Amino acid sequence: MEVQVAPLRAWDDFFPGSDRFALPDIKDISKWNNRVVSNLLYYQTNYLMVAAALVSIVGFLSPLNMVIGGTVVVLVFLGFVWMSHNKDILRKLKKQYPTTFVVAIMLSSYFLISYLGDVMVFMFGITLPLLLMFVHASLRLRNIQNKLQNKMEGIGLKKTPMGIILDALEQQEDSINKIADYISKVKE
């Protein structure tokens, strides 16, 4: 399946008035997780643009440390994903507590970067964009178009970069994965 870049959503849709934002129900973690995953998939290009702007600013101010920080985070992420595929206990942790898994990646990256270079580059160039994405995805209510686009990606009609990352973190819905498996078998 060919990877497609999701369209850039209109600013009015991405960041409208307060009527489209609400605090998540922290008692229902599964519903909150579903909202975050859906928004990450739907607004992924907008998030990429915001993150690219922040990374560019920090990278302009400290280019070498930004490259080192980005490399460390990517390598730690890949290491954690590889370990979670080879160790059942880590796989269960990643599936049940995705936030804990991401926090472990970020803390490990932080300690490695503090050993190798500038911690402020990590804080503003890497952590801040991720935090902004998580806060927006947590607070933004989903709309009909958001839900429809996510179902299309989930059943295998299209594949995006954020979908690949969420698959690596095992954050796609199980029922959608079953439908995608069925469709791929029918195609064969």
TrEMBL record:
User: What is one process in the GO biological process aspect for this record?
Assistant: negative regulation of transport
Record keyword Ligase present: no
Q: What is its main location?
A: membrane
Q: Which GO terms describe its cellular component?
A: cytoskeleton; endoplasmic reticulum membrane; plasma membrane
Locations listed in the record = Cell membrane; Cytoplasm, Cytoskeleton; Endoplasmic reticulum membrane; Membrane
Keywords of the record, alphabetical order, are: Acetylation, Cell membrane, Cytoplasm, Cytoskeleton, Endoplasmic reticulum, Membrane, Transmembrane, Transmembrane helix
Q: Which InterPro entries match?
A: Prenylated_rab_accept_PRA1 (IPR004895)
Q: Which residues form a coiled coil?
A: none
Is Cell division a UniProt keyword of this protein? no
Q: Which family does it belong to?
A: Belongs to the PRA1 family.
Protein known as: PRA1 family protein
Organism, scientific name: Furnarius figulus
